[in-house]
Amino acid sequence: MATESSVIAWGSGEDGQLGIGNTEDKEWVCVVKALEPYKVRSVVAGSRNSLAICDDGKLFTWGWNQRGTLGHPPETKTENIPSQVKALANVNIVQAAIGGWHCLAVDDQGRAYSWGGNEYGQCGEETERKNDAGRPLRRDIVIPQRCASKLVVCQVAAGGTHSVVLTREGHVWTWGQPWPPGDIKQISVPVRVQGLERVRLIAVGAFHNLALQEDGTLWAWGNNEYGQLGTGDTQPRSQPILVQGLSGLNLVDIAAGGWHSTALTDDGEKLVTSKDSTYLITNIKHHFPMMSINQGLILGESSVTFLVAYATCHLVYGWGRGEHGRLGFGDNDKSSKMVPQKVNLFAGEDIVQISCGGTHSVALTRDGRMFSFGRGDHGRLGYGRRVTAGQPKEVPIDIPPPKKLSDNGDEGHWIAKLVGSGGRHTLAIMEWQT
Predict the structure, then answer these.
(1) 86 and 92 Cβ atoms separated by less than 8 Å
(2) Of all residues in the chain, what percent carry a pLDDT higher than 70?
(3) How many CB atoms lie within 10 A of CB 189?
(4) SS3 of 111, please?
(5) Which of 204, 209, 206 is nearest to 238 (CA)?
(6) In terms of DSSP bridges, do strands 237-242 and 251-256 run parallel, antiparallel, or are they unpaired?
(7) What does residue 381 show for φ and ψ, rounded to 5 degrees?
(8) pTM of the model
(9) CB 187 within 8 A of CB 176
(10) Beta carbons within 8 Å of 37's beta carbon, 6+ residues apart
């Protein structure tokens, strides 16, 4: 069983977002040593900064801080070692999000907080003054403050210049500047998103939004330049519209990157043999058209005796911007997808989480392995090559075992429990299993 944990990071370190005490890029995973004394339960990678939430509700931030994105007045432009957000020390933070240059968090009482850049009202505070051209003057919120104070929030999500929250009643509220063209007036007071009821999960990209309802339907709105709304076209939507191509599927998770989207379903099947070997089969007849189930699995002239047991496994669907291979459809297919399509390259793997970054993605399997794909410069894919790859490839984990366990000679290995992809870097929580 897992007895120790560690936070790892890789990719761009230009702004100190890796948290390793310098600003170097890392092509291979490395340990965020400053977090070793703490039990971290969640990590978030932003465009240029990072945060971690501990079991006791403490919040740590690091990286770019020119706009107050770290939750305290900027003494330097960047900070390369995690530090606790003291303004939130007396509350129990349970979830947080990073936008373009602002952050959101929610505590165990459903109170939401915001800090960072606020020139579009994305922190939920009215912009005070305007310049001669009539544009609002920037007012950074360098100390976290309450936002959406009339709402009881269970999840926060941050876009490029807007914010979205999900309440305990299953309603979605938003404020800020929802997409680049500016066709919709920016707002600093939360406005309820109409047409959504009993929402259980939200995900926000740079300028698009996803909402998964309890009835299993997925809705999207916002910018749609690359088909990231999954509507079959590239027309933006100011109101939620049903995502196409997912009807009849049981969605269990969603994620949004800069300009792409993903969903997980549990509609796959897993075949377990009596020898404890696992074959993940999404479509038995498709993969094994000549299969005969009796006392063995007939594949050509070979036969394997087994006991049959089936269980569901997760399938991955991706849509939106495909440049750099961030959707995972292979090196020969980096085109954008206007509607969700199944990522067949994950056949044989039970994916439990997809984390979408700006131009890359990382998939986490049930047994704790990670696969990365997409843009590869700055080492953001984590396997030593700065090349773009549409083919998912496993991220090698070569970090020392926990010291007190290695001293005792206990054997084990690291498994990933959660992953967070940012603009040009990735974070993950690892656990040691013996």
Answers:
(1) no
(2) 83
(3) 12
(4) coil
(5) 209
(6) unpaired
(7) -90, -15
(8) 0.89
(9) yes
(10) none
